[in-house]
Each structure stands twice: as C-alpha cells, then as structure tokens.
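step=predict obj=Amidase signature domain-containing protein n=760
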Amino acid sequence: MAWSNCLRVLGERRERHRSSALTPFSRDSLEKSPLGFSFGTKMQRLRAIETKQPGSFVVIDNDISKPPSHYLVQSKDIILPSLGSIRLGKKLSPGLNPATVVYLDGDLRAKIGAFQDDDEFELNFLQVVILVVSKKPHISIKRSYAILKDQGCKSIFAIHQVIPEGPYFAQGEALYRTWRLYPDVYDAFQLPTISQLDEPTKFSGITITHEGNLMVPVPSRLYFPKTKQKPLNGMRVTIKDIIDLEGVKTTGQSRSYEKLYGPRSRTAAFVAKLIKYGAIIIGKTKCTQFASSDQPTADWVEYHCPWNPRGDGYLSPRGSSTGTCVAVAGYHWCDFGIGSDSRMTPQDQLESLKLTGKLAGGSIRGPASVMGLFALRPTQSLELLPGFLQIIPDIDTPGLTCRDAELFHRVCLHAFGRRWSRDEEVYDNVTTPVRSALPNGEAHREYGLSKLLLDFQQASRHLIKKDVHVLAPGTNLQDIAIHRPSPWQSPVRPTTLLYPEDYWDQWPEGPVKQQMEVAVKKLEAYLQTPRVAINLANIWLKDNPHGNGSSLAEDLEDVRTWHLYCKDLGTKLTSAYTSDIHDASMERFRRDFEQEYGHQPYVHPVIQDCWKRGESLTSAEVEKARHHKRMYSEWLREKILGGGGFNVMMVYPVGDFTPFYRDVYRPDPKDRATTYNWFEREDHQSSLAGVPSVVIPVANKVAQVEQPSKITGKSQNLPVAISLMSGRGTDVDLTNLILEMTKLDKGGFAGKVKVGKEAF
C-alpha cells in the first residue's frame, strides 16, 4: 500500500465524518502504554516525506503499520556546516539523523537524565549531539563525547551559536525542530495546529491522519524553559473552535460558516496574552454548534461528538466546550484548555433533568464536572472577548480547565489576575474599566491581584484574626454586610461560607451527595467557619427588589430567559472585531450565505429552533427580560455576595448524580418541554451576576463514587465535583484557595487529576 493512501498531510482536508469505531490506537491501549517510536538499528528505516508546507516534513517508518512519529520544521537559521570543524565520532548518515542540542553548562549526566523526564525526548535522540559551548567550556569536548558514547552517541558537534535545547532531526545540511505526533483517539480536535517559529500568534493547520485518527503535533517542553517573563512556557493548550487563531478558520462547528468565511486575520486577544506568557497552542477543539446545548446522538449532526474518557467510554461529555475538556481529561500531553462559558437553552435543561435527575451545565464547568477537572468561569469583562464568536454577549466569557491545581492557579493568575473595584461601570454584567484610584492615589485602568496581595496580605491576616464574626445558620444575611471589610481589605480566606438550600435540597441523598458533603466539611474546617444555610428565594421575597411582591421564580420565568437566549443566538453572533467580515452578526451570516449559495445555511435543530423563536420576539420583550436579569444580577452581587472582595463565598453542587449516556435520543427541539425555572439552575447564578465560579473535583482514590455501567454491566468509578462562587475580581483568590487546600496533609483536596478512565 502506498503511503499516499495511508497518510494525508498539511493542506489536505480530512474526512468530515470519520468512523467512530476504535482503531488500532484504541483508547484502552493508549492508557496502558505510551505511544513510542524506535529508530531500529538501520537509519534507512526512517524517511521524511515533505508536506505541502515548505520546509516541513513528516517522519515515517518503512513499516506502514506504524504511525507517523514526528512532524518536522526546518530551523532556517541553523545549518549544519555552521557547526564548524569541531566534530568527534562518525559523519552524519545521508538519511534522517535524530539529534539533541545540549548546553554544556553543568553536569552533563544530570542534564541528560533530566531530559528523559520530558515526554517528547527519547534516548534515540542522543545518536547525534550538538553541544552549545562557551568559548572556554569548563568540560572538554572529548570528555563529553566519552560520557555520551555510553548513551549511544555516534557523532558530536560543538558550536557557540545559542539555539533551544531539546530533540531535533538532522538531514543533509539542515536541522529540524520536531513535534511528536499523538493520535486523537477521543476525537477531541477539530484542527491540530502549530505556530510559526518567528511569529507565535500565526498558525498553520495540520491534517495528518493515520488509521482514521487525526495526529496532533506536540513540541518538547525542553525548547521552552520557564522564565520570570514566561511563566507558562512550554504549557500545551487547546482552544475551542469559536475562538480565533490567525491563519486558520473559526468554524463554530458549522460547515456552512466554515465554507463561507476564510482563515482569521488575527488571533484572539486573550489567546495572544497566553502566548505572550509562553503557552503553546496545539490545536482547536470541537464544541457544540455555535456553543449551543447540543447533546451527542440527538443533536451533533455535522461533526461527531468527542468521547468522554471517563468510565465505560460511552458517557456524555456534555458541552459546549466538549473537546476542550475531553483533551485535558484524556491526554497527558495536553496541559490545559481554553473554552467558553455561558449557559444552556431551557428546553435542553429540562430534557436532561428528566433523563439524569440533574444537569451539569455551564459551557466549561459542565464538561469539567463530569470529567473530574478543575474549571473556572472568570469575572465577566469585555476585555476578554475580542476574537470570540459571542453567542450571548452579556453572559459569554472565556473558560479555563486543567488537571493540576498549581497550574490552574498559575494560569488564572496571569490570564485573569486583576481585581474589580466599585469605580468600574457595569452594564449587563460586562465590566468596562475606567480610571480607578488605588488607595495610594495612583490611577490605573486595571491592576494586578498579586500586587494587591503583597500590599494588603499582612493587613488582611490581621483582619481575619480580629474582625471575623462566625455566623451560625439562620443569621440574618444583612448582618454580614455590617461586619464585612471593604474590598481593599479583602481577606486571604473568605469569612462567610454560604450554603444555598435552594440548590442543595434538589439533590437526592446518595453516594454523590455524601462525597459533596465531605468536601463542604473540609471547606468549613479550612476556613474555620461553619456554613451559613440560606434560602435565596425567601431572601428575594423579603427584599422585594421590584416592589410588587413577585417571587424569584416569577421574575426569572422561562419565557424571559428565552428572550435573552433566542434573541441573541438568533440575531447576534458577534465578535469584537467588527471591521472583519468574518465577525459579523448571525443575520449577516445568513444573508451572506444566501447571497453566495442561493439558500439559507444549514444549522443544527437547536439553533433552528432558536432562530424561529428569536424572530418572533419584539424589542420591548427583550428589554423587559434584560431588565429583570439586571435586577437579579445586581441583587445577587450586592446583597448576597457583597460586591467585590473575597469575604463571602458560596458553595453549591454541580454535575450529574446518575450517569448520562451519549446514545440517548431526544424529541425535536420544538417538541421538547420548555417550562423550566431558570433560577433552579445553580450554575446559572455566576453567569447572571458576572462573577467568577470554579469547579473542584472532590473525590479521591480512596473515596471514588461507584456508579452502574449499562455498557459493561459492572460498576465504574466516576468523578464528583462541587462549585464555589464569590465576588467580582476574586478569580485568583478562588484558585489560590483551591491550591492551598491541596497542600494540606489531611483534610484537603487532591491537587492532580489523572487522564483516562478514572480521575484518581
């Protein structure tokens, strides 16, 4: 069989609908053994096939049953003759030579040992070693060669030119950087990408496939040592396919949208910020269409839904940031993912509620909760949205998910590390920064949380010891505000832990809720304060914000939330890049498509239903809905959470208490029940108020929750999570609290989550 029939490379389009059957790269085999490669004894076994991208190659084996192992890009400024005459050992073979660049600046044996901790590095790369030396190296080249020969080194060069350490390939006169190719066995990726070496915000799509799987190119971390300026250097990141990367298309998971518009001309500002700090974007991940509430089998029409790595392999991965969470939960070579966070349509909320008894919602928080990941919905801000396909502009925000509590906090610190003040103007939850005066009188548009923590840490700790009032259940909520420090004196730990009975009482007693209760008790012990049980519906009636005695359910009835969702999704698919034709409204998309192709674009049934409902709404109805939303949002932020500051924190349940499977068929959206009280969804509250919310996996290896599997007929261990919410600008406070609790010897949370079937 010719390689052209087995391998399709850059520039070729992959099949739209690949088979869901497991290939030789089965999910089970991926978990049992890492994908490796072997050069064998003869270099002729490896070949480099040039792609349609100049200077790029794919490394293959003559044995066609083996997958392509590496993607190569020539380092244009490095030519082997420039290595000079300092060479020991054999000449380079005419074929493909695996090589390693090493700085000769310390213990060589220790450095080679440290290299082996990198998941891309193998000892085969030591066959050719290029030493980067100073003019007077402290260790001789001959001595280095003697050390390296024991590791299989055949040729050694010495140069003064500074190039990144790590694995390479040498062929002829060229030296190539290498990306290890991993199979996307969980079908999480829409398009793997690599960035240009000299312009890291510009990208090329990589469409290599083998045995039906996309192959994802992943670079060695050795190329990207962490520095103070680049604290995220070498971290591999996925990006949801409603977020722009320059040079590749944003599809929104719509084939019509993909066909109509070309590659993006700019990378989303938020993503560019991550790249500035050293993050490596490895691809765009699948999501529900236009970040709606599609469920697998029932609604995923144009692309196949990714596979949830947890449990028996057939659980729903939820949405809308489906592929983002699947990649983080399934692949050790993916460090964190960027999705978005909004909410789900009311008819899908009710349908899933009927099927599972509960719903994991929130576009990043829902998938993370059922896969046992850390997740963050940050404080709402317009600054985060340029380059996003915004579905509901006054609710949408980027979202973060991660397996590691330390990295979770580090990313949050650099991506969302700023604090909201009362001097900022707020409209519909979207924060517009204005010039705010700090306590020292210096004016800033925004300011870093880390600096404030340094300035106020000592004062905060003093406040905790002196002014905290332990509130027993039943305490009048208004009393909390009397004793609450100002936002400038926010404590390192919250002084009040709210326990909303409205949400907790919805969950039936059982092993899932028992594990959640254990987690709440851990929080109480860590904060040294008992929970304050509250009932939001009763407090709303007592406060009577509208002055007409209406209940919270009446003010957030489903028709008004439908006004927000259907009107926005039906007419306002927007982006902050308004000058770019690709970032037009949904109306413009429909008009452009019909003008180009003579008919309306196809969209999934859920979107079609939203279009129909949105078109029937009047401006007055939409404004009425927005007014009710603003009233509730302001009440939740100010009356319940006390505005900005980390003084009050709410804990609530999240996830599914029974397994929800991907093979469930549902009625047509127009036939699905839509009478659903939006207030009953606990995860919607942070979306409405524009405040940060985090998801924490709380089970551990000893206390995992067993659930029945309808696939195997046996039990399966599934993750359990809780969620925390606090005031504006407390994003970093929340992730820091999680990190601190993972450091406890006893009574804390697990700091790391595994990939594969079980989270712990």
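step=describe
The chain has 22 helices and 29 strands.
step=end
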